[in-house]
Design brief:
heterodimer, A: mainly alpha, 16 helices, 0% strand, B: alpha+beta, MetI-like fold, four-stranded antiparallel β-sheet, 12 helices, 65% helix
Chain lengths: 403, 393
Amino acid sequence: MQNPETILPPITERSGILRWLRHNLFNTWSDAILTVVSASLIYWLVKSLLTWAITVAEWDVVVANLRLFMIGQFPLEQVGRLWVALAFLVFLTGNSLAIWDRKSYLAAILILGLPVFLIFLPFAPQTRIWLGVLAAAGILGWGLGYSAPQSIKRSVAIGWLIALPIFVLLTRGFTPAVEDVPSTALTIVPTNLWGGLLLTFLLTVVANIFSFPLGLLLALGRRSELPIIRWFSIGYIELVRGVPLITILFMAQLMLPLFVPGGIDIDRVLRAMVGMTLFSAAYLAENVRGGLQAIPKGQFEAAHALGLSGAKTMYFIILPQALRLIIPILVGQFISMFKDTALVAIVGLFDLLGIARTVLSQPEFIGLHREVYAFVSLFYWTLSYAMSYISQRLETSLGLGVR
Amino acid sequence: MQHSPARKRVTPFWRDERFLQALGQAIFLLAILSFGMLIINNMRTGLQKQGMTLGFSFLSGIAGFDIAELPIVYSRTSSYLQAYTVGLLNTLLVSGIGIIFSTILGVILGVARLSKNFLVNRLAALYLELMRNMSLLVFLIFWYQGLFLKLPRIKDAIVWFDSIYWTNRGIGVPWGIPTASYPTFQLILLSGIFLALIIYFSLQAYANRTGRAPLSLLWSTLAFVIVAALGWLIMPVKPLEISIPFAKGLNLSGGKIFTPEFMALTSGLVLYTAAFIGEVVRSGILAVSHGQVEAARALGLNGFQTLRLVVFPQALRVIVPPLTSQYLNLTKNSSLAVAIGYPDMFYVSSTIINQSGRAVEMIAMVMLTYLTFSLVTSLFMNWYNAKIKLVER
């Protein structure tokens, strides 16, 4: 008779971490080699990066020039209005997060917690107060969005649309500067004092806002049945897409002053904005065209059967659907324009990258290229990544790009 | 407009759609033309004030500046046109090398991103995220100033295998210097290529006839290698003399020296573009239905064979169009060389603008050249795309 205790239990597959390791890392011998190689690569990279960042790098250069990196030479007494504009953006961000992505508390905490975290860093007292305002604006926006009915979506969307012009106007100011009169809170700040991240952001925003109507017209023109308009649109789009952005920026810097009648002076920032807008419009036109092509022919025919004219069909039926389809692509283009604005440093503007170069030319910070450029790259990277992450979250919750 | 015949009216011409369309286009054309005339006129008067006229005759003038990297003979006394040609060739060189290496790295990344191995997969994903959200110009400058210019000086150079020098003045690698018998050897190589082509195409024809799959690429490459090796051995004087770099004072000498500018630009463009190509490759592979992979595994093909014979040929159809635009992007992005001082077409042109003041002409030339690149590349890619297109019944 068999003793029940001698019966071995059935062999169970090892569960938990060992099984996961075997399946995902050491499935075959070649897999194991790959794992070992990647693991040592990761180890080496992390180790050398950390060693450099902690023991070798001199981060003083970044700390000492932080204000330059952020706003360039923008006059200190006018900085308040930038903070106000920023607070409005943070308010809208918090609001939108709460409305469109209610569930992801983690994202909300990370994004809204950033200003709170920054307060604890050793900034000047005034900066800390403004950071507090930012934090309050963000949390207020989130709270309002969380408790408000879903019907305020439309007003928040409109808020975003007007936020960016407001930002530009607040940066520029309203009352012209007069000598001997102390500047008020809204004195005009000339564009040659705009710099750093502020300039980068403004260039991106302006180029995108102004290229939108232009790109839309070009896209419609390219699909038009009128040959002259179609060929003009095709010619413009293909010409601009065929050349590098830097040639267009160069053209804007060197040739734009020649194109306008003598006596009118276009400042350098404006020239760069015109160049970026003309460049961006061609790419935007192609994106819009993609959206237009995705609309089935039945929509046109139905609109026509209802007696809508060509323009009304476009405005009421086609464009709302087409633009909704391409919102993810448009966000992608916004991000890539943001990364491309760095090129204005080549034509001598002081955007984030241009400021980095001036910082490096200061005698006390010579040779600190790694620290400065690592900081600038990190900044570009973080902002691009954050934008694409937020837009992805919003897209899934809105069901954008999905029909 | 359909009316009953009895009540048919003649549409007045100002409400005739065809007339309105023609009128609209005429007005548009007129507006564009007059706008063009206006700015050209403004430009003329502006240039006249500076005492200049438009025209390309200045191109034969003496350039008077040095260029660091010379694929052809050039000196200070050469003409602007020759300087421009040097820049053009440098652009083509960087783009060509960049396209080759970024394709290789991109395919590896795309496949790694889909790997079942957790670490490999995550590492590739991390790399793609890192690069795709980076600003290329900032990355290039970081890469150049922070890495290649921070390599040790010549006297403390990092040396690998006594022959590869890493210094802040450039990277020296062993290189073959042609000797007297090199032209003959080139002929032998040419005949080797010819033989390889014959073998390749006859094996392909055999494969098409019988349905077997001989390793045509392997055999033809082998044939070429054998011819080349035989040629090398029978030569009385070796066609290439291997020259190994060495430190000589403040400079590297011998071998082939790649300047930091060239290395930074090429490797930076490759690393950046490869991330985008990786994403293209990944989406192309994902577009091949999973049933194809399962069927291939059921037929007994191993992982690599499945990839090479079943997945890639089908994925190529999805990959080619976006890949083309990545190649074009790389070529256009090579103009960022101006930020790190590599004398590509754009950099040379901006030097010419500074020297001669001919901004309008030079910008027009650069733009036309880039447009030609785009046009040629898209023509070639359209041809290739048509060739690999799915033949539908």
